[in-house]
């Protein structure tokens, strides 16, 4: 029983960390895209 709980907690921590990293990377990419795209549209 304890082994199952520890395995599930490891999976939960892995999935949570993966989505946190994915969200951080996506947010950073969107911010850099907006900050890089808006000046280009304003220059035109």
UniProtKB/TrEMBL annotation:
The keyword Transmembrane applies. Keywords: Membrane, Transmembrane, Transmembrane helix. The chain crosses the membrane at residues 12-38. This is Uncharacterized protein.
């Amino acid at each position: 029983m304890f082994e199952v709980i520890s395995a599930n907690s490891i999976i939960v921590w892995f999935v949570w960390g993966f989505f946190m990293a994915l969200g951080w990377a996506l947010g950073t990419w969107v911010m850099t895209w907006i900050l890089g795209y808006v000046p280009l549209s304003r220059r035109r």
